[in-house]
Amino acid sequence: MNRRYFFFGSVLAGAVPAAGFGSVPSLRALGYKPYYDKLNVAAIGCGGQGGVILNQAAQTENIVALCDVDEKRAAANFTKFSAAPKYKDFRVMLDKEGKNIDACTIGIPDHMHATVALNAMQRGKHVYVEKPLTRTVWEARLLRDAAAKYKVATQMGNQGYSHEAIRAAAEMVWSGAIGEVKEVHASSTPGTHPTGLQQPANEAGVPSNIDWDLWIGSANMRAFSPDYVPYNWRGFFDFGTGQLGNWGIHALGPVNLALQLGAPVSVELLTQENQSKWTFPTRAVIRYDFPHRGGLPPVSVYWHDSATPDDPNAYKVPGIEEELLLPRSGNLGERGRGPAPRPAAGAPNRNPSARRVGAGGPDVKVYGSQEPLPPPKPGILTGNGAVFIGSKGILSTVERGEGVKLLPESKWKDYTLPPQLLPRSPGHMMDWVRACKGGEQSCSDFNISVPYTEWVLLGVIAFRVPGKLMWDSKAMRFTNSEEANKLLQPVFRKGWELKL
After folding, report:
1. Which residues contact residue 481 at a Cβ distance below 8 angstroms, ignoring those fewer than 6 apart?
2. DSSP string spanning 257-318?
3. d(CA 131, CA 126)
4. Are residues 407 and 431 in the same domain?
5. 21, 56: one domain
6. Are the beta carbons of 283 and 306 closer than 8 angstroms?
7. What's the rounded Cα separation, in Å, for the pair 323 and 242?
8. CB neighbour list of residue 161: distance below 8 Å, 6 or more residues apart
9. Which letter does DSSP use for residue 380 in this model?
């Protein structure tokens, strides 16, 4: 009997233990704690986004150990949590502090997510792993199987799944507000990481604050480059997943939830600019095709990677003349009474390029043009978000799912939201903390987030292998490309291989 069934079954039977589900002896034995006890959390990755989730966990739980291979990147949180022991090697930390650790937050480069998370789960630790969960499909399935084997609570850090508007957007689609959806377009603005490089990364001496061997971890050893750290690794195929894994996993979240997508039958790179053998291209368009899913029709999902208004392949939303299709800010409004008002005339223009500078935190080199992006054009898809094209209307979501509205805005102004079907979240971190204490399965538990991560990661392969790739999810292979199949699983450095 899984924990989700146990939770709801007990509620319906009126058998909720007074001290919370963590008080049930069998759950205590599995590592769950009563609700009134604080979790002892270890943070692996303490700078950048790793530092963000560390501090979120610290709002309610105990921070008992810190680990980071980069002393400079982690310095602020090493000082803030001065009482916690500090480590560079996560394996040493888990060995020495393991008895005092209940759970781990993991916010590190993509290529090490699976390695660190598996080690923690094998020691019975609950894990919160930043998006996009893993760098490859094989690793994602490994983590799903590991979570089941070691019976731990899990969460992927796609925070949009806990927003109010993403759930309202799904309820709107299910209510028939826009009819049948057979086409979706989602996009991201350019990132700060390198793209379209035509030569290998520049080599340099290793700074004294970084343990380069531990940073490389399971990847093949190579010389240090300032182009990789502290943040721009995400632009390189060997370490990251580009804007697709950085923002696509957010912008596509409402699409995955509302359309219950499951596995696609194909993925194809339609266009790209500045192809590179080392990094992701400057911008691109990828198409995923999904079959019938229960009563839902087949749907094509287009990913516009690093979309800008001057993109010759920019998508024009039919019949929409709004100046800014996907604003950087947006919200649900007052239950159908409309979105937040627009800035007054003459107010500063919050164009998407503003986010690019410093997006990776202090000391992050920003790649590409620093000139402001061209102003938005009427109906042109730009920004971070998604547009659902329905047979009866159009719906858009903003960024991670913070905002939702019908298009054109005149339809949203007087719209009344349908009744709530989905429970609302206490917050993405608290959702996981509750699961760690024996409560309901988190909204991005690996059973939920792995199938989603998997289909998104197929697009990463499409960047590197031309043609329409036919996907057999059950067999976990492409039926028409051995070249693509070679990219489903990483080649591990000797001594870093993974197994359950």
Report:
1. 465, 467, 469
2. HHHT----SEEEEEEEES--SSB--SEEEEEEEE--BTTBPPEEEEEEET--TT-TT--B-T
3. 16
4. no
5. yes
6. yes
7. 28
8. 253, 257, 401, 425, 428, 443, 444
9. B
pTM for the model stands at 0.90
Task: Please give the C-alpha separations between residue 316 and each of 156, 304, 309, 323, 407, in angstroms, as whole numbers.
Answer: 32, 12, 10, 12, 13
**Whether 195 and 287 share a structural domain:** yes
φ, ψ of residue 166 in degrees (nearest 5): -65, -35
Structure tokens at 238: 């060997």
Handedness of CA 208, 212, 213, 215 (dihedral sign): positive
Return the sign of the alpha-carbon dihedral for residues 379, 383, 389, 390: negative
- The token pair at 361 is 């935190």
Q: Does residue 228 share a domain with residue 170? A: yes
Please tell me whether residues 68 and 180 are part of one structural domain: no
Average pLDDT per consecutive 10 residues, the chain (500 residues; last block may be shorter)? 35 39 59 88 97 98 98 97 98 97 98 98 98 98 98 97 95 97 95 94 96 98 96 97 97 97 98 96 97 96 92 85 55 40 32 41 76 78 91 92 88 92 95 96 97 98 98 98 98 96
Please name which of 481, 452, 448 lies closest in space to residue 465, comparing C-alpha atoms: 481
Residue 370's closest CA among 236, 190, 196, 103?
190
Per the structure, the complete domain to which residue 369 belongs is given by 164-413
> 430 is written with which tokens?
């608290």
d(CA 46, CA 106): 9
Provide the residue count of the chain.
Answer: 500
User: Which pLDDT belongs to residue 309?
Assistant: 83
Look at the alpha carbons of 250, 498, 53, 18 in this order and tell me if their dihedral is positive or negative: positive
Q: 409, 322 in Cβ contact below 8 A?
A: yes
* Selection from 240, 251, 247 nearest residue 194 by Cα: 240
Angle made by CA atoms 330, 434, 128, in degrees to the nearest 5 = 70
DSSP assignment of 316-343 equals B-TT---S-SS-SS---TTTSS--PPPP
Look up residue 312 and give its amino acid: P
Instruction: Report the pLDDT value the prediction gives residue 24, as an integer from 0 to 100.
Output: 55
Q: Which residues of 78-112 are buried (b: 16+ CB within 10 A; e: fewer)?
A: beebeebebbbebeebbeebeeebbbbbbbbbbbb
CB 396 within 8 A of CB 255: no
Does residue 247 share a domain with residue 326? Answer: yes
Distance CA 42, CA 97 (A): 9
| Residue showing tokens 């208004």 | 309
Please indicate, yes or no, whether residues 185 and 252 belong to a single structural domain of this protein: yes
